[in-house]
Structure formats: C-alpha cells, structure tokens
Amino acid sequence: MHDRGVSPVLATMIMVGVTVAVGLGVASYTIGLFGNLSRSAQISVISVDIDATKNEVTFELDNRGGQSVALDKVEVNIGSITYSSTPNKSIGASSTTIITINDLGDESDNSPDFMNGKMYTFTLRFSDGKILTVTGTTLSADKDNNVIVVSSSNMNGWKFIQESGDSGSASVISGYDTPPLGSGSARFVIGDSDDGWTLLLSNTYDVVRLDEITKLEYSSYVASASYDTITIALHFDIDDDVTDDDDSWKSRLIYEPRYTETIEEDRWQTWNPMTEGKWWGTNSPVSDKCSWAKACSWDEVLDAFPNAGIKVKVLLKAGSGWKSFDGSVDAFTIGINNINTTYDFEP
Predict the structure, then answer these.
(1) What are phi and psi of 267, to 5 degrees?
(2) How far is CA 193 from the centre of its chain?
(3) Is the pLDDT confidence value at 17 over 60?
C-alpha cells in the first residue's frame, strides 16, 4: 500500500486557509488594539501658567482620545516639601480643558511660595492611571515692577528674629525720613554688643542657585550708630554645592557695604551687592575662599563655588558685635533669571 501525499491543489487551499485565518487574527488584534486606543483618553499638556502672586497654577490640557478622564491629583516638590491638590476635574473626550489649581498644600496645609523666574516640575495623575510630568516657569507681567508689600498685618513670609542677645527691637515703622518706596521701612534697634536682629525670609528662595540671581539691591538708613562703618547687611544661608548628595547648611554668606562704600548717617543709601560689593563666609568651605579678612566680589564667589545655592534663608541683619545702632532697611530687590521682585516694608 502506497502512502498518498496531499495534492498540490489541496495543499494550496490549506495554505491559503491558514494564511487567511492568521491574517484575520492579526487584523482582529490590530483593530481591537487601535479601537481601544481611539476610545481611551489621550492627554497632552498645551501650557502651564504659574501666578506667583496668587500661588495659582493653570494647566491647559488636550484630550484627543474618545473617552473622558479626570485629573485626580497634582503634585509639586519645592525643596524637600511636597505640595499637592486633588482637583478631580474631568477632561472631556476630544476636547481642550483649562484647569486652575489654587489649593496646593503640604501636610500642614501650608501653601507653596512660587518665586518669579523659577522653573517648577509638576506631576499630574489621572483617573485611568496615567501620569504626566510637566514643567512651568513663573513670569511677572512687569519684570521691573513686581512689588510685594510687607506690613505688620501681612508680613508675606518675612519675620523678625532675635538671633542673639536679649535687648533691642525690630519692627516696621513710618519713616525714617522719606523711604525709597512708600512711607515705611523695617527698623532695627541694637542696645548691646550681644544683640543680633534679623528680618528673615524662609523657603521662598530655597535651593535657588547663586548663578540664577541676576539682581540684588536694597536701601538702608542709619539714624545713629556706635561705629561709622556699620549699616544693615544682607545674608544668605547657603549650600556650597547644590548638585551633590549633601544638601545641608554649609555657611552664611554675608554682604556688608562697609567694604566698598562710605556709610553716612541721616540719609537713605542704596547698595548693589552684586556689582559693587564684597562678600564673606562664616564657615568652611566658604570662609576658606572668602573670609572676613579677605572678602570676595560676587564674581569671585561664583568662581569659587559655581554650584552654590541658597539654603532656605534670606536675611537682612543688624547687630552682633555692635554696641548700639538705630536704622532701617527698605526696597530689597532680588532678581532671579532677570525677573525682579522688590519687597516694600510698610507699617
């Protein structure tokens, strides 16, 4: 008995049948895959607008898919603190939606302090499990006229702190004389050489690199002083390298007008620490390069510490070694990436 092979015609028919079956399977899978994609939400971010004056973020979101989805959560990290909001806002199918977030808060319900000129990264979490990461930069409508009033009823993040001693005082007052902005200023009174008073702003400029600072300016007034070389100084707490794994405080970086300027009583004087000033550090490694005895220009500080940044605090200070002092400060301006903010101290 001879084995009978499959005839060429039958073999061809079988192969065609298998090919058609496989083809239908692939077609079915492909249609199913793209059908699901077209029905699912497909979100992209058109724009991110950050309003630093309101601590408000607006997202313009585009959904090109065939299914609506909700924005469940928004997160932003500023320094070591995470701020979040749970808007639960729907983005309809095949539509563009604008969502404004104004209730970002940390675990203690504190709001973030967005800073002009600074870039922030937001994480958006959606109801379908998708996660998008987007960045936005705060912008001021008028770069040269972003003024924040600091008053006794609303200090806008600033506060007076007595760092040493047990006498003297600090407050916002009317005067002295005619201040550079408005009618008031922040006054410091030192009664003893142990006294040290500061006007402190925390967190707003935390981790800002020194090379991102494009303007520094403030005005001070001396009503009376035990020495003719003292007036209110500008301090930064800094990390000498914000790119390494050690983000701890390293030193205070101090600008004192006395190094380059003649200080006079009973008149307002304006200081430009970046272009005309000298800086020194209180602790190593900053003091190794820029010491009290050998203060550095701003450019020399940047050359010595190219990755340095602010560590939490910006301070205006009087005292610590001064026998007596009575004077004021006003119109402190700090520019970040060419966007300036001026703080006007008023009673």
Answers:
(1) -155, 150
(2) 36
(3) no
Name the amino acid, one letter, at 21: A
Dump pLDDT digits (tens) for 308-337: 999 999 999 999 999 999 999 999 999 998
Q: So what's the pLDDT on residue 145? A: 58
Write the Ramachandran bin of 170: left for phi over 0, alpha for psi from -120 to 50, otherwise beta. beta
| Interatomic CA distance for residues 147 and 67, integer angstroms | 45
In this prediction, residue 52 carries a pLDDT of 77
Kindly report, residue by residue over 272-312, the tens digit of the pLDDT.
Answer: 999 989 999 999 999 999 999 999 999 999 999 999 999 99
Contact (Cβ atoms closer than 8 angstroms) between residue 207 and residue 310: yes
Tens of pLDDT, residues 87-131: 999 999 999 999 999 999 998 888 888 876 677 889 999 999 999
For the chain, which domains are there?
43-138 (2.60.40.1890), 146-345 (2.60.120)
Residue 50, both tokens:
């950050």
Count of CB atoms situated within 10 Å of the CB of 332: 27
SS3 letters across the chain = CCCCCCCHHHHHHHHHHHHHHHHHHHHHHHHHHHHHHHHCCCEEEEEEEEECCCCEEEEEEEECCCCCEEEEEEEEEECCEEEEECCCEEECCCEEEEEEECCCECCCCCCCCCCCCCEEEEEEEECCCCEEEEEEEECCCCCCCCEEEEECCCCCCEEEEEEECCCCEEEEEECCCCCCCCCEEEEEEECCCCCEEEEEEECCCCCCEHHHEEEEEEEEEEEEECCCCCCCEEEEEEECCCCCCCCCCCEEEEECHHHCCCCCECCEEEECHHHHCCEEECCCCHHHHCCCCCCECHHHHHHHCCCCEEEEEEEEEEECCCCCEEEEEEEEEEEECCEEEEEEEEC
